[in-house]
Amino acid sequence: MGLDLDRCIELLLTRKLLAEPLLREVCAKTKEVLMRESNVVHIKAPVTVVGDIHGQFHDLLEIFRIGGYCPNTNYLFLGDYVDRGYFSVETISLLTCLKLRYPERVQLVRGNHETRAVTQTYGFYTECMRKYNGSADVWKYFTDMFDFLILSVVIDDSIFCVHGGLSPSIHTIDQIKVIDRFREVPHEGPMADLVWSDPDADKEDFVMSPRGAGYYFGSSVVQKFLDINGMSHILRAHQLCMEGYTELFDKRLSTVWSAPNYCYRCGNKASILEIGPSLERYFNVFEAAPNEDRELVREANRRKAEYFL
Fold first, then answer.
1. Which of the following is catalytic: 42, 54, 58, 113?
2. Which terminal Cβ of the chain has fewer Cβ within 10 Å, N or C?
């Protein structure tokens, strides 16, 4: 019997975990799809852009309620799907199935948390072990798949989209296209910079980041990159925004953050960025999902895997 993605999506939307053999097949087929994609995927507007989710599955469902369900809405997800939140397995399972079901309408960019090293520290590994009876196989399927995620997206040859930011080693889009991305994110170098770097309103050039990877970069760096590549805007995620988003450098750069009440305690708002056919940008700000309450968090801590299909 073939893989029934519609049934998988239906089950995941009701917070049911897929069986380990099924996830093995889903990840293997998703790698085949991602392998055919460039490091830089060019897409057309309209598209709705989503920032960090971090395992807050009920807020992901809220995003679909607000922004529309696939395939009626085109989505670009900017990374950091797992860790921190209690529902990383459900989150990445659903997004992977949606990518496999609608490969032209769903784009998945790699974030700094889509790595083996980070997920072993910040929750995804432990969650997989807990929900799949002490086995790390599901974690391995997903982290192997992460090595195939794309690095960036360009919308209508005008908006450059990436998880983190810019790199002193990268001046043109073509330089991103030749990076060997099919591996664990290294500790340094252009690939690391793309997923780790942050803008800083008080900087002009590149400065080493206190995160321990990537750089802070300022207004002159942004303007030079846009000028060289003939673009108008940089769009990224990676940084908590208390109001759900920020705009810097005369609105030449935006950060979109999509995990409300981050870690179930920060009290922040979140947003999705809706980009219209003429590249008009609208930040749709929202609060934490009404059903993302303490009881659900307690349930996540005590629940074992419910196997389906």
1. 113
2. N
